[in-house]
Specification:
2 copies of one chain form a homodimer. Chain A is an alpha/beta fold. Chain A has 3 domains: about 5-45, 434 Repressor (Amino-terminal Domain); about 60-165 and about 300-325, Response regulator (Rossmann fold); about 165-295 and about 330-335, 3-Layer(aba) Sandwich (Rossmann fold). The first copy, chain A, is built from 12 helices and 12 strands. Chain A has a 6-stranded parallel sheet, sandwiched between helices. A 6-stranded mixed sheet of chain A has the order 7-6-8-9-10-12, with helices on both faces. In chain A, helix 2 (about 15-20) crosses helix 3 (about 30-45) and helix 8 packs across helix 9 (about 195-210). Chains A and B meet through helix 4, helix 5, strand 2, helix 6 and helix 10 of A and helix 4, helix 5, strand 2, helix 6 and helix 10 of B. Strand 2 (about 95-100) of chain A pairs antiparallel with strand 2 of chain B, so a sheet runs across the interface. Chain A binds a DNA duplex through helix 2 and helix 4.
Chain lengths: ~325, ~325
Amino acid sequence: MTTIKDVAKLLNISITTVSRALDGYDDVAQETRELVIRTAQEMGYTPNRAARQLRKQRSETIGYILPTDKPQFADAFYSEFIAGLGDAAAASNFDLLVSAAPPDSAAEKAIYQRWAQGRKVDGLVVNRTRLQDWRLQYLSGQKLPFVSLERSLLPLEFIGVETDIAQGYLDLIGHLTSQGHSRIAYIGAAPDLKIDHDRYTGYRSGLEAASIAPDPALVTRADLTPEGGYQAAIRLLNQATQPSAIVCVNDLTAIGAMHAAHERGLKVGRDIAIAGFDGVADSAHTQPPLTTLDQPVYTIAGLLVNMLLKLIDGKPLDEHQVRIKPNLLIRASTVG
Amino acid sequence: MTTIKDVAKLLNISITTVSRALDGYDDVAQETRELVIRTAQEMGYTPNRAARQLRKQRSETIGYILPTDKPQFADAFYSEFIAGLGDAAAASNFDLLVSAAPPDSAAEKAIYQRWAQGRKVDGLVVNRTRLQDWRLQYLSGQKLPFVSLERSLLPLEFIGVETDIAQGYLDLIGHLTSQGHSRIAYIGAAPDLKIDHDRYTGYRSGLEAASIAPDPALVTRADLTPEGGYQAAIRLLNQATQPSAIVCVNDLTAIGAMHAAHERGLKVGRDIAIAGFDGVADSAHTQPPLTTLDQPVYTIAGLLVNMLLKLIDGKPLDEHQVRIKPNLLIRASTVG
DNA sequence: CTGAAAGCGCTTACAG
DNA sequence: CTGAAAGCGCTTACAG
């Protein structure tokens, strides 16, 4: 490995000057700077990260933990989310540390502690925020910068990105009622998740705006997977009073629900309307293509990282909360 | 931050002893060890990673770069793969560094160089291996340990995991011919990818085993996305001689191909058979459910990490090459 | 069994 | 504009 010493020795100058030249300080002679930069390049020198981190007392790394309910954690939302995090971090010369743990598990807690205490990361990105989320409380207590996708109900300052679910659901339910639907069901996720809370609230507001009386029998919950959506839809379709439309908390749930409907011999779009949320996954290519509230996942991830980096640097944020309006993509799954 | 000094001071012993007690050396008095461990725990002490890395000259971190062809990189294969990498790494107290870059791009090269030169990582996991893959050559040259999913055609020692595609395709084509198919098409990926190479070879062997003459008109290639599969299938279906079955390089491609078939008014399973490869994604819940060659992605990722960690530690490997047989899941998409 | 000390490779006040 | 030196927090030979 080439070190700063090697570069200094070759050039017969001090390591101080090499360091300053490379870091772009303006008190280095133009000539010296150019020579240093060229030589470092030629020698293939890159500063040792551990040494730099130790000295600067920051890791130039941000962390993210995948909420893996099961090992078979196949969800395209997360590949796109991580790609967005990685790209935005790299653009600022930060690294992205990724781990995986079941939400609200001992393993999750252990990772947070290890990262926080060992200062492995300068900050974290949190998603799948829960209503009472110990992670946010812990990070606040540790004074470790973080941003989150969706806010909690805790009395903590919220810095991050939020989807404008209320508006999205007004659009979606409006679309469904305009198609003549009034028995609209909801398949959510665990009720302690902020996305379930918001989407359920949005669902209720949407019904209210259309003057439809809510029916508790049309509300059920699953686990954000196709399998969960499939089972939940079977429950709904087994009831005496069946829904004519189902809105689902995410696309994977909707894909499972469509499967259940097909098995019943229902033609999705004609016999029953089904809609998702996310717009990632293969929603454009399901049979029939899935109506969904599309979110720019890659962009959201980038926004989160850029907010986090400003927090880490102690720079002022343009906005503490960014609100993203999901885009209603109407496809055949809700159009007779 | 609590440091080793704080612990030592509180206990009135040297930092040497604290370090040795915590690291489990056996030349520390049992009593001292217990005291140190308990106190460290109570004080919330975790060794500073940067200091440890600098001193040990290893980062206790492995790296992985997502092959993001486009920002909208939605592929459930990768969420599961990363979950597997993260879990296996964490089980050995290693961290996982993730970045993203388009395959074979300048950005990809830059990340490899930064990680290698700055010793950000002790080793890397490579996938989507290309036939002539500069990454493998570069890492070999840098003497940086790595493992790969699928081998290249380069004259380098291969350490990693390989899917037994030949056997998988014999099973799959056998299944299709037993259903009476003889006009079997193939939708692949970029031909410089090892998976395309292997799957195409497997496809040809499968045809040969069934004494079916290959027809170049039935072979086309896409980009591993649903959209690509959709376009490729349209091309195939627009031809004078249409396929009666299509095998696809991955599930996402197959999902797109099913979409194209449906648009043509073909009933998948009855009018045309379509099969995928991977078994992640929502293949069990597509309409109709998708026949696929299922791979244990999470397990494969774990195997790769464990092999890599042995390489990093200079320990002997049980096997340099692990061969995984994909599991043919026959579903309605290929059964009349 | 325990401790004093060196040193990993940087960055950055400080002096000139 | 440049350099000598301190020190970030560890681990580990070495001495006792």
